Amino acid sequence: GAGVSQTPSNKVTEKGKYVELRCDPISGHTALYWYRQSLGQGPEFLIYFQGTGAADDSGLPNDRFFAVRPEGSVSTLKIQRTERGDSAVYLCASSLEAVGEQFFGPGTRLTVL
Amino acid sequence: AQSVTQLDSQVPVFEEAPVELRCNYSSSVSVYLFWYVQYPNQGLQLLLKYLSGSTLVKGINGFEAEFNKSQTSFHLRKPSVHISDTAEYFCAVRSMDSSYKLIFGSGTRLLVRP
Questions:
Q1: What CATH fold (topology level) applies to the domain B2-113?
Q2: Residue B55: other Cβ atoms inside 10 A
Q3: Which domain holds residue A56?
Q4: What average pLDDT does range A21-40 have in this prediction?
Q5: Residue A111 lies in a domain
C-alpha cells in the first residue's frame, strides 16, 4: 500500500522567500507529525496534529514556521522569510493513532541560498 | 525531558563481522525505546522497539537490541552484517506520559566493507 509521501523531494529557495512543504499521510491515519533533520543530526520534533488540530506545536522554532491540516489528511508546513539556517530535511510521519507506530516519508530537502 | 546519546558517529566493520551500535538515554520518566534505520534518500524505517516485557528485543533484518534499565542503555547488535546494512541508524525514546513525541539521537553511520 501507499506510504507517506512528501513533495517536493527537493526545494531550493533564496533567503527571504516563502516556501510550502506538503505531506500526504497514510490513508486513515489520524495523527501526523513534522520533524526537522539538520545535517549530521537526528530528527527533531516540530509539530503534532491529531485530526485537524495542532495538538502540540512546541517544536516550531519561531513564528516564521506554521503548519496546517485543514481536512485532517494532507498537511502543509509553511515557512516565511526563509533563512539559511532553515536548510534541512523536513520529515513527515503519520500513525493510526497517537500511541501507534510512526511511519515516515522520504522527506523534503530544503536548501536556502 | 529526555535525551539520547549515540557516542559513535561512524562505525566501520567488515562484511560478516558482528557489530554493536551504542545508545544511552536520559529520562526522568519511563520511556519506550526504538531503533530506526535510514537508507540514502529514504525515510526512516522502524527496526525494532521496546515497549515492555522481555528486555531482549528482536527486529527486522536480523537485528536485536537489549534494554538495560540500570545502565539506561539500548544497544543494537547484529551477529553478522551484510553490505546492504550500510545506512544511518537512529536510537529514539518516547516518554510513556507523552506518547507521541520521539526524541532522537544524532545517529550512527554503519559502514560495511567487503
A1: Immunoglobulin-like (2.60.40)
A2: 12
A3: 5-100
A4: 95
A5: no
Q: Which of B3, B44, B97, B108 is the best substitution to test chain A (most A C-beta atoms within 10 A)?
A: B44
**C-alpha dihedral (B57, B50, B75, B59), degrees to nearest 10:** 40
Yes or no, beta carbons of B100 and A33 under 8 Å apart: yes
What are the cell numbers at B26? 536520559
The CATH number assigned to the domain holding A93 equals 2.60.40.10
CB-based contact, A90 to chain B, within 8 Å:
no
Name the pLDDT band for A97 (thresholds 50, 70, 90): confident
Indicate the number of domains in chain A. 1
B99 and A35 within 8 Å at the Cβ level: the answer is no
CA dihedral A42, A43, A46, A47 (to 10 degrees): -140
Assess whether pLDDT exceeds 60 at residue A1: no
Low-confidence ranges of chain B (pLDDT < 50): none
**How does strand A5-7 pair with strand A19-24?**
antiparallel
Q: Is the pLDDT reported for residue A111 higher than 60?
A: yes
Q: Within a domain: residue A105?
A: no
- Is A110 within the bounds of a domain? no
Q: Which of B102, B106, B109 to mutate to test the interface with A (most CBs of A within 10 A)?
A: B102
Q: Which residue of A has its CA nearest to B40?
A: A106
